[in-house]
Amino acid sequence: DRLAVAARVLEDLGGSVRLETRGRTTALTAAGCPLADVVVDHPEVCRALEALVSEVSGIPVREHCDRGPRPRCSFVPE
Length: 78
Hints:
Blueprint: H1 2-12, E1 17-22, E2 25-30, H2 36-39, H3 44-57, E3 61-63, E4 74-77
Antiparallel strand pairs: 1-2, 2-4, 3-4
Helix pairs in contact: 1-3
């Protein structure tokens, strides 16, 4: 699975990532953000990870990250 390759890349960055079925699609979600220390002040980092996940997987994705006190990544195929 192409998203599984992207999940491994995020795990290599320090994320705890899983693939989650959402209706007819599979989302890549993380229990935490591998770049949590910078995401709160720099939300553009989520868009950079979005581009990384799209590039590595070959699937266009959109980020739906939670940038709250405990940031969590979420990427959903478009």
